[in-house]
Fold this protein.
Amino acid sequence: MRIMKVFVLTLCLIGHTTFFTSAAALPKHEDLGRATLAPNDGWASFSTGTTGGSSATPDHVYVVHDRQELIAALNNGVYPPPSSTPSSTPKIIYVVGTIDANVDDNNEPLTCADYERNGYTLEAYLATYDPAVWGRVPPSGALENARVASQQAQQARVRIRVGANTTIVGVDKHAVIRGAWFDIRGTATSNIIIRNITFRDTYDCFPAWDPLDGSQGNWNSAYDSISLRDGHHVWIDHNTFEDRDTADTTLPTYFGRLFQVHDGLVDITNAFDLATVSYNRFVNHDKVMLIGSSDSATADRGKLRVTLHHNLFEDCGQRAPRVRFGQVHVFNNYYQIKNTPNYGYSWGVGRESAIYAENNFFRTDHETTPDQFIERFSGTAIYAAGSLVDAASPNHLVDVLAEYNAVNNPDLLPNVGWTPVLFLEIEPTFKVPSTIMSGSGPFNW
Ligand code: CA
Ligand code: CA
């Protein structure tokens, strides 16, 4: 274990060498480990606010370099964790360099083949469940069971449980967490801050074929980069979420459908409440952010309150966000739809959703039209004001809702039944691209 506890508040990190520094060599930037969400900065500031692990005692401040150190830091310094429930003791975790989740306990890389169990191979799976052979019914039997067992073997490595009262921050712009699923769940799981990290290539080696998903069937995968379920008060800020080595453009097609190895980037479901998602970059991904997972999840009513501001959504296919039930404030975001061959929509209006969108900027390929920014599922209303599309002139506001209603029936209504009050400042829309291109994602230290 190279895990190190930091007994002073300030530290200086060069490469993988950790040492303590005198006041004369203090980093010039803010110590993100002790930072808290500003009052009024979105839904995560409601009531108690979000302070993460900022009150950690010195023996609960950690610097981590690999999967094992990260998991230990989340469990009072113990690996393997003594319990499936991670520690709720206030803790600050500084991430250094690249942490790959698909590794063994010696930090040696694990490939998809390393997880195969009980005779599963992709070749056998494709041969067995080809609709031309198997028919248009869900896979079942020994080989499907072997796929599930293989998936569980990978999950045991990539799933990382994060407990309450935790701050996880990159020490610099080179902090990367690759292939991981941050599983944040449980009604007692609250008060978490995640900042200044690049989440890259969260992928499932064992997608499931569902011949009944859509008109042609689909390959569906497990693992979001971050999932929030049942808990409350989470701030996700200044991160990048992206697919690189596993980008959709690199993936094959089987049974006529993309072999999709990704699920969401940040999915918020199961009556989770009160998140602020700010200044992140969501890049080159299909399903970005699902807020509410089912029309029948009526326990979500009154929950799923989320603020999204100053995020970049670059070449994202859909769900930016897709909402059910929640009151979601979407302001000052920058949507780049320039090179997005599989673009579906940005704002998904699901059952009882109440998206309040204002002052967002869209940059398009000039073929995508503003009516396409909205997709109606079983919702009835969305407020959308102050949008600019391509032209940065404040005199060319586009009424995205009117554009949608002009080409779709039934119309969506503009009254969503609430008006946001928790925000710091709403910028004029024409300023949004420059603010976001210079100020989103990990800090440029
Ligand atoms: Ca998901
Ligand atoms: Ca209409």
The chain is about 15% helix and 30% strand.
